[in-house]
């Protein structure tokens, strides 16, 4: 609900910025710049952030830096890896997987990017969310499916990977989503789904034990098989991209990068290049990643002026 989202932004932005300065024990006078997301995203929410940042920049005389949301997901990993003493080596392939994006980029040292492939239909996180909704697990779907998939057999349901003509580095998840829907329709799951909805109404965040009490083995198997297929689809194309470019690292970021199955599968591949994930707190959307992406721009003096516009579909490459 975009309209509600922008109103919530409007309500939250002043107290959130105030709290950030307070907890950071800093003030406006100490800020080198103000970094703000200019796109892509819901345009109403982008406008709230951008207008607030412009006003602050103008009133306080602090330079403004416009950041692409997706670059934030990439640069959070680059900054964190550097701080941990194991810097990302370039060229890198970046897989950005969230509720809105499933994109593969070539990322170069000078923070320039080339789009290698993207989803033709649903984003990976969206597929998690739709499957969870279909089976009565609420929103967001990724964390609960991740939590329950370990209790099912990932080979129980033989879902297959998408086969497509054209760019071999594009993704597709709508076929898999339809396969889960068909699996569900072939059985009568209405009573177990109803029980889960009742659980959700009584406990907004059920524990694994609570979910397991209302979820039979066959449904755990379908969750595990669905997650296994998404992971295979993601890693197969990301690894193919990294190999074809002779990339020196693979970066995986965005909300779906929290997925423990994806992290374990990437570790198990024994690849010739290292795979970098953000710490879980920096995987889903956050403000620190926008500051991280602004840092190299600050060093290069790449500032925005007050004419910078919010762009719902701002391309990275
Ligand atoms: O990056 P993000 O916070 O927001 C967007 O820009 O979309 O990503 C949110 C998405 C949701 O679709 C959510 O279901 C998914 O990330 N997600 C996960 C996990 N945690 C969050 N998907 C799979 N496994 C997880 N553990
Ligand atoms: Zn995001």
Write up this protein.
With 317 residues, the chain is of the alpha/beta class. It has helices spanning 2-23, 43-60, 69-83, 124-134, 141-149, 174-185, 190-202, 208-213, 217-244, 260-268, 280-283, 288-300; strands at residues 34-39, 64-68, 92-97, 102-107, 113-118, 249-253, 275-276. A 5-stranded mixed β-sheet has the order 5-4-3-6-7, with helices on both faces. A two-stranded parallel sheet has the order 1-2. α2 (43-60) links the parallel β1 (34-39) and β2. α3 crosses α12 (288-300). The protein is globular. The two termini are 28 Å apart. The model has no long low-confidence stretch (mean pLDDT 96). Zinc ion binds at residues 69, 73, 98, 254, 285.
Structural class: alpha/beta
Computed over alpha carbons, the radius of gyration is 21 Å
Instruction: Give the termini distance in whole angstroms.
Output: 28 Å
> Spans of 5+ residues with little confidence (pLDDT < 50)?
none
Question: Beta-sheet strand percentage?
Answer: 5-15%
- Oligomeric state: single chain
Round the mean pLDDT to the nearest integer and report it: 96
Instruction: Going across the biggest sheet, name each strand in turn.
Output: 5-4-3-6-7
């Amino acid at each position: 609900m975009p309209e509600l989202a922008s109103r919530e932004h409007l309500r939250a932005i002043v107290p959130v910025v105030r709290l950030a300065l307070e907890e950071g024990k800093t003030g406006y006078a100490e800020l080198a710049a103000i970094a703000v997301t200019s796109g892509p995203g819901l345009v109403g929410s982008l406008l709230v952030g951008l207008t607030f940042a412009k006003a602050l920049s103008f009133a306080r005389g602090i330079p403004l830096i416009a950041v692409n949301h997706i670059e934030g997901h990439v640069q959070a990993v680059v900054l964190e890896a550097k701080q941990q003493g194991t810097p990302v080596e370039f060229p890198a392939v970046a897989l950005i997987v969230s509720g809105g994006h499933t994109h593969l980029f070539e990322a170069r040292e000078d923070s320039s990017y080339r789009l290698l492939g993207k989803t033709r239909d649903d984003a990976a996180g969206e597929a998690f969310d739709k499957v969870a909704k279909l089976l009565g697990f609420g929103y967001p779907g990724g964390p609960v499916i991740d939590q329950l998939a370990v209790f099912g057999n990932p080979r129980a349901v033989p879902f297959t990977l998408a086969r497509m003509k054209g760019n071999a580095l594009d993704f597709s998840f709508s076929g898999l989503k339809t396969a889960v829907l068909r699996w569900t329709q072939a059985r009568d799951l209405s009573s177990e789904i109803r029980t889960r909805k009742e659980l959700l109404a009584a406990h907004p965040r059920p524990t694994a034990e609570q979910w397991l009490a209302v979820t039979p083995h066959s449904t755990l198997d379908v969750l595990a098989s669905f997650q296994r297929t998404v992971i295979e689809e993601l890693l197969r194309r990301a690894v193919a991209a990294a190999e074809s470019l002779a990339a020196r690292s693979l970066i995986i970021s965005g909300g779906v990068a929290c997925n423990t199955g994806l992290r374990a599968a990437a570790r198990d591949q024994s690849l010739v290049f290292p795979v970098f994930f953000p710490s879980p707190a920096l995987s889903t959307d956050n403000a620190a990643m926008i500051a991280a992406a602004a840092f190299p721009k600050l060093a290069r003096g790449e500032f925005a002026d007050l004419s910078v516009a919010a762009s719902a579909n701002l391309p990275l490459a």
